[in-house]
Amino acid sequence: MDSSSITSNLEHRSLLGELRGFEKGSFFDLGHPLLNRIADSFIKAAGIGALQAVSREAYFTALEGTKLDSSNVPEISGSKKHNFPYFKGETNRKSLEAMVKNTSKESLRWGLAAGIQSGLTYGLTEARGTHDWKNSMMAGAITGVALALTTEDPNHEQIVQCAITGAAISTAANLLSGIF
């Protein structure tokens, strides 16, 4: 392949084509499939966590701006209804700091969960020689415990509930993956 065809190929690549390329591989090549899987899962889920935090805040800010009753709005994953106490529509340092802090915390939590889940599932599959619901159950339970420990005031009951929930969701996802 000569240099002109390489240059021509690079000029015709689009952003959509680049993003589709990530579906087949991972963002990183860290030299080991386990590390690649953990890093890839962490980055993807952290982005989702950031979007979730910002969209939740936008929703509650819009609700507050319209003066609608938000008492019937259900709590989402134990989060407070208004995570940015200084965010009142004006541009100031406190509102930006609060938004960045909360978005970073959510990104870290989602990334941590995905990285632990993916890494444990891979490790258990390699150790046991099979990929089944048992690997998913253990990985989900440990991930649930890790998430419970990242909350502001973790207690025994919350840790056990998160472990059971993580195990149930992970096992269900594994069992349903063959159907869909």
UniProtKB/TrEMBL annotation:
Domain of life: Eukaryota
Major subcellular location class: membrane
GO MF, one example: amino acid transmembrane transporter activity
TM ranges: none
GO-annotated cellular components: chloroplast outer membrane
Membrane topology: Multi-pass membrane protein
Keyword Cytoplasm found: no
Keywords, in A-Z order: Membrane, Transmembrane, Transmembrane helix
PANTHER family: OUTER ENVELOPE PORE PROTEIN 16-2, CHLOROPLASTIC (PTHR15371:SF1), TIM23 (PTHR15371)
Name of protein: Outer envelope pore protein 16-2, chloroplastic
Organism: Acer yangbiense
